[in-house]
Fold these 3 entries.
Entry 1:
Amino acid sequence: MNFTVVNRDIQIGNIRVVGVASSSVFLIGDTQTISLSSIFDTPPESLIIGPLVPLAPQ
Amino acid sequence: MINRQSNVESAYVNSVGISSVVQVGDSLLIKPKVNALAVQREEERFYGFEGDLSMYQAFQEEIPSPIIYETVTTNFFHENPRINVHSVNITALSSSAVFHIGSTKDIIAEARVKHIRQLQNLDNGNNTDT
């Protein structure tokens, strides 16, 4: 497969970002590869009602 | 590919959090990784010896990478080899986030967050636990 990109003028004024989080990228420039992965686990079992016992003690 | 030049007049970043990167200038590889156990408790309590991450599957699971079946031939023409930005204002970067002014080759970021909420058991209106 052939992929052709023509980059013409880019003139940006003001950029306002509130948050960049959990394996995210804000890039002003060029790159070859970006690989971002994020695991976010909040199952129903993660709500523990009971005595405040230590979690996974080491 | 020949990289373009990034011109940013002014940049402001309020806070950079866990395993995040702010890079000004070119780079080759950025590889941030974070494992977080986000615990919210009804009572403020920190033991300091918690967090054996091998106990949770979210930190063990292997993340599959995409399989590339086809070779791609790329052509880039930079009619204007500059990226001009007047100003950037970022409130916060967190959990393997990257803010990059300039060009790079590879960015490989990983974030694993396990959320747990611990509430106290209320038995007949009395706290059974302390």
Note: The two ends of chain A are 52 Å apart (CA to CA).
Entry 2:
Amino acid sequence: MPHSDEGIIDKLWNLFSSMKTGLFLLGVIAVSAGVGTLIPQAHLYTSVWFEFLLGLLCINLVVCSVQRFGGVYQKTFKPSLPANAAEVPAKIQVQLSGEKQGLQASILKVLRQHGYRITQNADSGAWRFLAQKKRWGNWGSFITHIAFVILIAGALLGSIAGFKGFLSAGIGSTVPIQKINLTKGQISENFAIKINAAEDRILPNGERDNWYTDLSVLENGQEVVRRTLSVNHPFSYHGVTFYQAQFSQGAKFDVDYKGQHMPAVLQNRGENYFQAPGTDLYLIVAAMKTDPQDLIVLYQVYKGNAPEPVKTAQLKMGETANIENAYTLKFEGLVPITGLQVKKDPGVGIVWLGSFLLLLGLLLSFYWRPLMLTGVWDEEQSLVVIGAAAGKRSSKAQEDLNSLSLTIKAEYALPKGEE
Amino acid sequence: MNEALKNGEVFSLYGLVLSYFFSMLGYWVWLALKKEWFGRLATVLAILGLTANTVAIILRTIIAQRPPLSNAYEFILTFCWGIVAVYLFTEFKYKLKALGSFVFPIVILLLGFVILKMGPQDRVAQAIPPALKSQWLTIHVLTAMLAYGAFAISFGLGIMYLLKDRPNKGIIVRFPSTLVLDEIAYKVVGFAFPMLTLVILTGAVWANYAWGTYWSWDPKETWSLITWIIYAGYLHARLMYGWQGKRAAWLAVLGFLAVLFTFFGVNYFLPGLHSYAS
Ligand code: HEM
């Protein structure tokens, strides 16, 4: 029994350690993402099977990385010396003949001047060496792959543990964080936001500078922080971040309910409603004309659950209307309404870490190519064979090695004791 | 003052269009007739065009008081700059004049779009919404310019490879060997891929400041990811299966088509956050 089990595990391991599988998964992800842009309603990217694909890709990347870790580690920190001249790469090679001591000294000197780290062994009279440069480049693809997994993990954490919502409020209003409209997740925090001021700032040349909201955070009714935020300049409090997202004008009313005055701020197109206490009347603003010379709102009153309004009428600035004999309504003008995106994403730091590592890995992969030379002293022919590991560079490697060998020859030819 | 700057910009636009156009003709004639003189002329015109292109971008930046990132006209100006800059670098580094014949038609097609499809009113510097006022977008645009430019070069090299990879006859004989074409294409993609990664990541950082969402699967984002995956495929396939050569060349061609679709197709065919850019 354990035998066949191992077989399956081995097979799975082989499947997931294969780059073919990885490329296949990447291909499927690319194609389905492309299809998703053509059929935008499909909610593809949040679907379980899309997440499943990403999960498989991550497993693939982890398995691949685990498998390659040892090799990369050894290549970087414990590279093995060539046992004999046959182990020196033959494709990219030079031979330098001369007298052993002098040649050895020149080689070491020139390679060190060129920034190589040298490991050597001279037991039993045979001199063998290995020279490395930019050895951290070996870690490029390893770091890239792990970084991608970290990035996905951060995104996943954010989608599980975070929330996303929207708050829109007029100046002077206080909104408990628990009351905002959520589109995702749940809120465990318990503070409130007070909108002190909001401004649509226009530059002298007529262009919009930005939208600003001056808000305070209240803990148990006490102000603890006060801040001004604007588009591209969000503000965070205890992991909850507020982003300036919208700006509009709302209609401000004074409601006279049996001699008691209370304010009501309503947004255009029925975005919110006002319910006078003790009534089942719901007041909304269906449309408004914001010309400063000619301010008009079109309001509607709904009763209970009835689908049709019981009243639809207009009010000009300063006018008063009687609402179903329950209260009177005075239209006092416009007030700014600020719209804030509210978000908590505990995964975002991990996403940035993954992004940073991804870039680091790519920079190492493509801009920090490791170089490795190996060489062996051939006692019989009295020469040193030096070869370069080809890596991913090929045509220029031989040229580079040739020019290095010229420098070594020049160094070797230098009369000693004059330096 | 502002009028003078605007006139200067229009003047540079015509200058760069004419220089690039005659440069393309020069590269063609050079390739066909093997007259060194035309080759040199083509390169000089390309450098002239790039200078005018640089001036146009700088003037636009001064006029608009922001980096050139608000409309298709500005994107095309920077796209062309990236293509020609990376092209000239490649020509000098690898002594590869024949590539010019394949790269400049892309530039001319892009500029043709400006000349034929855009009136002066589409080219004026517009006010940008507050969301676009971000330092991250400056890096976003700069890196996109270089990444897209380099991908155009690898596309040209891919086409050359596919033409060369057949019984040699005619002007194709003047191309470098397929081995050399393949290796240069790989180097160019190796430069561009980290850049494209940076483009996507700076876009994500910006979106996170602006909306609190670093990734929202809007069509432009999604297509940039698809492009990224195609080039990741190119790098891996090349590395592992000995997919060097022909299939890699096809992937380089496909990758650039994805770049173009991200650039144009998304703005014109698909709705989304980036649609203010059209
Ligand atoms: C998520 C997208 C991926 C990216 C961005 C990526 C990136 C890279 C890069 C930049 C390299 C170095 C290429 C070069 O030096 O030419 C590389 C190599 C490699 N990748 Fe990936 N990779 C991804 C996915 C995968 C997957 C899914 C697998 C399979 C498990 C995989 C396996 C490998 C292997 C085995 C190498 C060879 C490394 C070497 O020989 O140095 N990669 N990858």
Note: Chain A has a mean pLDDT of 88.
Entry 3:
Amino acid sequence: MPALRRRWNALEPILRLVGFSLVGLACLGPLLVLLYGALAALPQHPDWLLLALPTGRRAGLLVNSLELAGGSALAGMTVGFLAALALWRMPGRAARLLRGMALIFLPLPPSIHALAWMAAAQGLNTLLASLGMPEIRLMGWAATLWVQFMALLPLAVGICLVGLHTLDPDALEAGEMLAPGLQVLGQVILPLAAPMLAAGTGFLFLLTLVDHSVPGLFGVNTYALDIYAEFSASSQPGRALLLALPCLVIGFIVLAGMQKGIRRVTQPVVWARKPALQMKLPAWLEILVNLGLGMVTLQVVVPFLTLAGSTGGAVRLWASIWAARSEIRNTFWIATAAALLCVVMGWLAARWLACTRQEPGKAGGAPAAWLVVTAPLAVPAPLIGVALIAWFNRPAFGPAYGSILMPMLAAAARFLPFAAILLAAQFRRVDPLLLDAARLHNTHPLRTFFRIRLPLAAPGLLAAGVVVFALTLGELGATLLVIPPGQSTLTLRLYNYLHYGASEEVAGLSLLLTVLLVAAFGLGALALSLWGWLQEAQS
Amino acid sequence: MRPTLQTVLAAVCLLALLAACTPAVPSVVIYTSVDQVYAEPILKQYEEQTGVRVLAVYDVEAAKTTGLVNRLLAEMDRPQADVFWSGEFVQTLLLKENGALAAYASPQADSLPAASRDPDGCWTAFGGRARVLLVNTNRVALADAPRRMADLLDPRWDPSRVGIANPLFGTTYTQAAAVYAALGDEAAEQFFTDLQARGVRVLDGNSVVRDLVASGELDFGLTDTDDACGAVEKGAPVALVYLDQGEGEMGTLVIPNTVALVAGAPHPEQGMALVDYLLSPEVEAELVASGWIQIPSRAVADRPACPAELPQRGMLVTLAEIYARLERAKTDLTEIFLH
């Protein structure tokens, strides 16, 4: 066994290098493929370089985008924090249920949120008209900001909840003893959660920056719309990439700024031990906290009621679901395969993030590694699709291109960062003494892996798989470009019906997406509980 | 006896071998921007008639027409599709310009007007939709509705109740280029500048224009006949108006379907057979009956109730002339509408 251990020790750095290279390739590959294409075209089209400079009209559009992204992110995180504070302080099972409900519409595409709010506004206007009151016009900046904020709210609440649960309970309890209520919030909770809240704000900012669907629906011009107009008219990914360069640069700056917060996720999440806080807040803040909770409720109730009310009845709903059975099957397999791939690649990525030198009390991982792993978050989805075609549509890849493998790869290329971050967080929770003990006992490396590493990482693997599965359910931009002929997904079908104007089908399929998501989260939560119960029983 | 790992692996290998030995069903791959709800029954019928499996990829409006055309261009070195069937012609001409289409003179094209055939044989146009003004008749009496495109600038209309889809995308972009071809660059630029200055609502797509006119949030808006007829069939208080039908006016733009064989198609024979089928009078009649085509290229016995009438005066510009104005239109419209 010592000989085997020695051989393994010699081999491990090489395997690790190969693994990290694979992760780097998966995260940066699409961007590099596009960059190569753009640079190769520059000698023939030197004027393309001007696209990368946002001057005149484009500078104005960029300012629009920055304002919208900044506004949505700040509003989302502020209200999200207030709501999360309410949910965090809430005791018992009801809180767990409410937390789950707050996150239900997380993967629903923002344009479906927009349609739900448009339908709700229409209903309200009918009521207002019957009362002889002026109607509300859901258009322009205010409408865009509102819908974008509402669509991002579940994510904001989720991030804030993670931020609150990563706080050190001892520090909070000590703070509560010295200065209760508002001072604990202002002097302990907020400063401790600040990196996470900043990372969340950056993440919401990025999501709004690359989205053109909601602003487009409400007549607001943004830089993302300009990129799509260029891509649509020229069909040149190189031109689109150069035009997107200012957004990408901003995206990378934001990602770099988010690093501290993202790495904070890798601090142990103390779900099990919640600090015993009284947290007596002043009345005005209690009102704000409850208002935040009210907004979250609104974000769930309005889309749900609008969608449920538009399905055309149970028979019609069943007909919509039955007609989409092959898309449901495809979506399930694609999402499952993407989740599995992201879990495997995420493992490698998380090892990379966790293996670099760590200082006591600080979250680990080299900033460069974090930047590489989170890079896909800044790349628009259609560009990832185009890059995958350029990459995989070669004889060397044989029938893999044109198979269901491609949409699975597209989803994995987009959502790997989420899996990596969750797994890195899980690795930080593993007691290194257990691994050292296995090493000291010269256990077979595979045995160590299957008997120690894998069981310890299981909750993280499950969480990463469920999150990637949920996000893949709503993927459209990259899937459209690589879906194999003769196949479709639930989201593709939904968007196809959107143009046809079949609102019953759109509502039915949106509800189905939500149900699938709830099922995925529910099963994930159940499996996590079972795992925890098994661990407890064993110990 | 419990199955060992070896037994399971052997069974899997056997199944894989059996699957590989199954005689391959002939297939053809089509990329289409025609709405799935219209295209799918036609393609299924072809499967039933010929036994050839049709593998389709459908586009979605949310992709802003960047979807399948970009995919075809990206796949040019190793094409996967055999046939491209578009609900319009601009993207088809773009594909031809980039060398993504192959020449194929379908015998079915003989019954179509000469202008429907590409001089190089790279595409064939048939049947289509017209650009139309959809009017909410609860808000505006049909007799008072605009009759010319220029009437959209009339100060008597509240601009916030007039809608167009974003003219940088889709068929509204094509219509804008057609206006450039018909009026000349300067006059067209002035028209769109005035339209924007008036503050008409620029919406995300033709279906949004349709929905807002149908709901009464807009008095009227420009859209396609298929969208407009969808609202009529749902019983919305709307009516269709073909603009510029008078003597000396520019006429209504009809946007035909286009069908093309992809250059380097993996199944060229099957591709040609599918092109022939799609261009057949029977398929055109079925697409008219289903509501995808409102302006047929050939005489059709049974036309649906919508549209009640066909435009009397089409635009007197060729598809190539419209295509030639796209670049100028895009440059101007980006400056005018996207800031």
Note: The first strand of chain B starts at residue 27 and ends at 32.
